[in-house]
Design a protein that fits this description.
Blueprint: H1 2-7, E1 13-16, H2 21-26, E2 30-33, H3 38-49, H4 55-82, E3 87-90, H5 94-103, E4 107-110, H6 118-132, E5 144-147, E6 163-166, E7 186-190, H7 199-209, E8 216-219, E9 235-238, H8 243-247, E10 250-255, H9 259-267, E11 272-274, H10 281-291, E12 294-296, H11 304-316, H12 318-332, H13 337-348
Parallel strand pairs: 1-2, 3-4, 4-5, 5-6, 7-8, 7-10, 8-9, 10-11, 11-12
Length: 349
């Protein structure tokens, strides 16, 4: 959306955590530090509740108290200085929406994953109420949102949002060279840019794939390929890749279930094996498997024989690929960011 806005002549300013400030600046946008890192919020929440506390204690404290308050603290003085006409925020950065409301600026959320289960959202809403004052239609999504999920996988949580803008999920690839690719139909393996300490899962998956008659490309993002040690003959590891270009040549995707990779793989019409490691990845895996476009292995089920068997099925059974191709056709018909941006600007007045 940001490149589309810049191309249309709008001024685009980012607010983001300290670690991402130089990354956004390198993309050519004005940027201000806003909020604390998720890792900081997690450490503080665990300090309050104890290391063994569950999600409802740690997660709700993080996303309904610590993170929104940190954004409010930073954006409350910033927004009046910037005087934006519109604020766009990703759904879990709800403090941004609260700051925008207090500054009298229209705000629209972007659906980046799956909504909390209703019973969890109700608890989060109660904790957010003191910051919001009067709650919007959805405590995280607000009163307007951009939904990038195709119809077959739409998040039911958006049904309660008064204004929903549908937008084609459009990857923004890093400006890195395309690595040499194996012959068409290779397996693309990634656990995203944050692997939740799942190096053993990555190594085990590589071992399972090496038992099959397939070539494998492993993308580690910021990880060091050397940390994986010696690799089988038909496996190659690299760092960041232009993922959309890689997917155009792959035959199957094995990944963590992050929303970006899920949607990019569907847009490419590819079946998926999902090995969720955290956050909303478990919900994504469940939705994909229910659709029939993927298989999912979770927790103790992530073992070499199970991975090997799942990949064999996905390579041999045409049904998951047919479903993925149907979803790809649906995604291709969704409105592009340029069109949706114009609709949002008109809505914001």
């Amino acid at each position: 959306m940001a490149p589309a806005a810049a191309a249309a002549g709008h001024e685009v300013v980012f607010g983001t955590g300290e670690a991402f400030v130089p990354k956004v600046r390198d993309l050519g946008f004005e940027v201000h530090r806003a909020g604390i890192a998720i890792s900081e919020a997690e450490a503080e929440a665990k300090k309050r509740h104890g290391e063994d506390a569950g999600f409802l204690d740690v997660g709700i404290t993080m996303f309904a108290e610590l993170l929104p308050q940190s954004l409010l603290d930073d954006l409350t003085p910033l927004l009046p200085r910037l005087r934006p006409d519109l604020v766009v925020y990703e759904m879990s950065d709800v403090g941004t929406a609260i700051a925008a409301r207090r500054a009298g600026v229209p705000a629209v959320s972007v659906v980046i994953g799956r909504s909390m289960p209703p019973e969890v959202l109700a608890i989060a809403a109660d904790r957010l109420r003191p910051l919001w004052g009067t709650l919007p239609a959805d405590a995280l999504l607000g009163d307007a949102c951009v939904d990038v999920w195709p119809d077959r996988l739409r998040d039911p949580g958006t049904a309660g949002v008064p204004k929903v803008f549908r937008m084609r999920p459009t990857p923004y690839d890093p400006d890195v060279p395309l690595p040499p690719l194996p012959a068409g139909g290779f397996v693309y393996l990634t656990l995203g840019t944050v692997v939740f300490g799942a190096t053993d899962v990555l190594r085990g998956t590589i071992a399972a794939l090496s038992r099959l008659d397939v070539d494998v490309l492993v993308a580690l993002g910021p990880g060091d390929p050397a940390a994986l040690g010696p690799l089988p003959d038909r496996v190659r590891a690299t760092g960041f890749v232009p993922q959309a270009q890689v997917l155009a040549h792959a035959g199957l995707v094995v990944h963590h279930g992050g929303t970006g990779t899920v949607l990019a793989s569907l847009a490419a019409g590819l079946p998926q094996l999902v090995l969720p490691q955290g956050a909303d990845q478990f919900a994504n895996a469940e939705s994909l498997e229910a659709l029939g476009a993927a298989k999912a292995l979770v927790g103790d089920a992530v073992r070499l024989p199970a991975i090997e068997a799942a990949v064999r099925t996905l390579l041999d059974d045409p049904k998951p690929r047919e479903i993925a191709l149907a979803v790809a056709a649906e995604i291709a018909e969704m409105p592009p960011p340029e069109q949706v941006l114009g609709e949002i600007v008109s809505w914001a007045g």
